[in-house]
Design goal:
Layout (H helix, E strand, L loop, with lengths): L5 E6 L3 H14 L3 E6 L2 H11 L3 E5 L7 H10 L8 E5 L4 H10 L3 E4 L4 H11 L5
Parallel strand pairs: 1-2, 1-3, 3-4, 4-5
Length: 129
């Protein structure tokens, strides 16, 4: 049985992105347990139940979008301390500024640059992986 030092929750509705993230973590961040949710609603439930060290949240989710889910996480005493990394294919300067202004700890555009994603996750987790 593997020993994980940290837990990250990835909320993403696209199965290809989910598979890519799983591969990135397995290869580049093997000491991190990656939990997955396909909807914001499920992600919120898992976040409350497991209190992960970091949440990676797609902004363009069906139902509750990433901004709405972030608002709920920030208003919940149990989850407000968890840093949230926003992800989206929207790469305009205005999109990045909007994400930062909403309170995301960081924002990464898709398609993911593996090195940037890995470094950002490590930074948001405070190192020690």
């Amino acid at each position: 049985m593997e020993e994980y030092k940290r837990t990250v929750l990835y909320v993403e509705d696209n199965q290809l992105n989910m598979a890519l993230m799983h591969h990135i973590f397995k290869k580049n961040l093997p000491s991190i347990l990656l939990l997955k949710a396909e909807t914001a609603e499920l992600g919120l439930s898992i976040a409350r139940e497991t209190l992960p060290d970091l949440i990676i949240l797609d902004i363009g989710l069906p139902g509750l979008n990433g901004y709405e889910a972030l608002d709920i996480l920030q208003q919940d005493e149990a989850t407000c301390h968890i840093p949230v990394l926003g992800t989206s294919a929207f790469a305009q300067v205005s999109d990045i500024e909007k994400a930062r202004n909403k309170g995301f700890a960081a924002y990464i555009t898709k398609p993911f640059q593996v090195k940037l994603l890995t470094e950002t996750v490590e930074r948001l987790l405070g190192g020690g992986l």
